[in-house]
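Homework-ish question, so no full write-ups if that breaks the rules, but can someone show me the predicted structure for this set?
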Amino acid sequence: AQSVTQLGSHVSVSEGALVLLRCNYSSSVPPYLFWYVQYPNQGLQLLLKYTTGATLVKGINGFEAEFKKSETSFHLTKPSAHMSDAAEYFCAVIREPFGNEKLTFGTGTRLTIIP
Amino acid sequence: DGGITQSPKYLFRKEGQNVTLSCEQNLNHDAMYWYRQDPGQGLRLIYYSQIVNDFQKGDIAEGYSVSREKKESFPLTVTSAQKNPTAFYLCASSTRRGLNNEQFFGPGTRLTVL
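A: Not a homework solution, just the prediction itself:
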């Protein structure tokens, strides 16, 4: 069964520093992977997704993620953190890409930006 | 504007009472989902529906019920059988065309049992 593991429930970075949020997946089929962001007391918003094709995926707000099959990873990065990036981030994988759209979410990483 | 609406934003319930959370979408999506979010546990799937008049249990369906009488609407009832209902509830929808299956989320309803 497909699953995702997010390493680090809390990450703090200084404003202007590199943001790196880690996600590893387990999947018996080619995975379809997503990163979502959640601001306090709001729903989730899609940052980016990987389905097929280019392994480096660019998303909104300057974020990007690289699908590495050999490492079963899909880490989220941003070169320079901004105060507005403070939020909770969720990695997710589609459980069964064909005919079933259920997502499995990681437990989330709360990102704090230090001024 | 197209999107998903959930109401109310905050809901308080006494123990032993049933309560219904509303979810409406105007995105013309076939599939709809209900998730429960608890601190440190991510999102867990309660129920999902891939088409009108059909729905399936997710991972934590006990104590919950749903209906899907219209494509636009997927209400969730939290029954008195749910032992720990205090949580943040999120509704989502997606198109079933293609394999991208991006889910769009509503703003959520925070339920507190008093």
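Now go work out the reasoning yourself. Hint: The longest strand of chain A covers residues 87-96.
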